[in-house]
């Protein structure tokens, strides 16, 4: 698993690769929050190379979504695999996060 | 229909074993030529069950175990994930979507919901002080059927 970010023009793109679960979620959280500390005006989760996510990762995303919503910053996701899409759908995330 | 293969696995209840446990459960079914979706459904559900053991079952997870048992049939697999930890006091509450006993850890409370959604049958038994047993059944969609 790796998590890294790009920040330009006020837009944060946050990349997750490999499998995320309980064993590495704290690293993902930390890196994501480092990105949010840059005060982006939009956040894109790039998940093209993420090969596995379960409810632990979903909890992390929902928590960030709620924080961003309070300050009016939109959160988008792109590059969902079939497994990721099914997990997002089950958690109701497809209705609240823009898929681009 | 008779069992064609059986597996028993005991590993330390540490988060570093989550990937191993879900991959082992999925790999156990490979001889039945499952579709990628079936493989991913099994991985996701088993990962949820393993996460529950690691996060909730034990005071000292590193000194305790996740137990996985599986039986493979021609067109379905039964997978048991269990622990001998503290057990769940209120199972009905624990299985409610969005319920979590650890909201401070940013947990979604979706674990049992995912197991129910991704598998065909789910049953959970738990006894305080004795542990929790999650039984799941999944019909295997064959790759060539798609």
Q: Any overview of this molecule?
A:
The complex is a heterodimer of chains A (100) and B (146). Chain A is α/β, with parallel strands linked by helices and 100 residues long. Chain A has a single domain (2-99), classed as 2-Layer Sandwich (Transcription Regulator spoIIAA). Chain A has 3 helices and 6 strands. The radius of gyration of chain A is 12 Å and the shape is globular. The mean pLDDT of chain A is 96. Chain B has a 5-stranded antiparallel sheet, covered by helices on one side. Chain B contains 4 helices and 5 strands. In chain B, α2 runs antiparallel to α4 (111-118). Chain B starts with a strand and ends in a 7-residue tail after the last strand. With 146 residues, chain B is α+β, with helices and mostly antiparallel strands. The interface between A and B is medium-sized, with 20 and 28 residues.
List segments of chain A where confidence is low: pLDDT < 50 over at least 5 consecutive residues. none
Percent of residues in helices of chain A: 25-40%
Number of strands of chain A: 6
* Derived structural class of chain A: alpha/beta
Largest sheet of chain A: 6 strands, mixed
| Strand content bin of chain B | 25-35%
What is the number of beta strands of chain B?
5
The span between the termini of chain B is: 24 Å
Distance between the termini of chain A: 23 Å
Q: Class of chain A, according to the CATH hierarchy?
A: Alpha Beta
Output the radius of gyration of chain A: 12 Å
Any idea of the CATH topology of chain A?
A: Transcription Regulator spoIIAA
- What order do the helices and strands of chain B follow? EHHEEHHEE
Topology summary:
The complex is a heterodimer of chains A (100) and B (146).
Chain A: E1 2-8, E2 11-19, H1 25-36, E3 42-46, E4 50-52, H2 55-70, E5 75-78, H3 82-90, E6 98-99
Parallel strand pairs in A: 2-3, 2-4, 3-5, 5-6
Antiparallel strand pairs in A: 1-2
Chain B: E1 5-12, H1 18-28, H2 36-57, E2 65-72, E3 76-82, H3 91-94, H4 111-118, E4 121-127, E5 131-139
Antiparallel strand pairs in B: 1-2, 2-3, 3-5, 4-5
Helix pairs in contact in B: 1-2, 2-4
């Amino acid at each position: 698993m790796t998590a890294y970010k790009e920040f330009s023009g006020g837009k944060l793109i946050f990349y997750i690769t490999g499998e995320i679960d309980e064993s590495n979620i704290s690293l993902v959280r930390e890196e994501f929050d480092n990105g949010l500390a840059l005060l982006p005006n939009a956040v894109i989760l790039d998940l093209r190379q993420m090969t596995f996510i379960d409810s632990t990762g979903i909890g992390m995303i929902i928590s960030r979504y709620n924080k961003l919503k309070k300050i009016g910053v939109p959160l988008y996701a792109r590059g969902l695999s079939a497994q990721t899409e099914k997990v997002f759908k089950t958690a109701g995330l497809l209705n609240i996060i823009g898929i681009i | 229909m008779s069992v064609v293969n059986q597996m028993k696995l005991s590993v330390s209840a540490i988060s570093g074993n989550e990937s191993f446990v879900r991959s082992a459960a999925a790999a156990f079914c490979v001889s039945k030529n499952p579709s990628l979706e079936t493989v991913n459904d099994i991985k996701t559900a088993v990962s949820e069950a393993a996460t529950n053991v690691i996060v909730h079952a034990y005071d000292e997870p590193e000194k305790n175990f996740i137990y996985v048992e599986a039986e493979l049939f021609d067109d379905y697999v039964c997978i048991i994930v269990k622990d001998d930890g503290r057990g769940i006091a209120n199972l009905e509450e624990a299985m409610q979507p969005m319920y979590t006993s650890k909201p401070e850890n940013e947990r979604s409370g979706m674990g049992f919901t995912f197991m129910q959604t991704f598998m065909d049958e789910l049953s959970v038994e738990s006894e305080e002080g004795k542990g929790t047993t999650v039984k799941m059944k999944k019909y295997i969609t064959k790759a060539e059927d798609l």
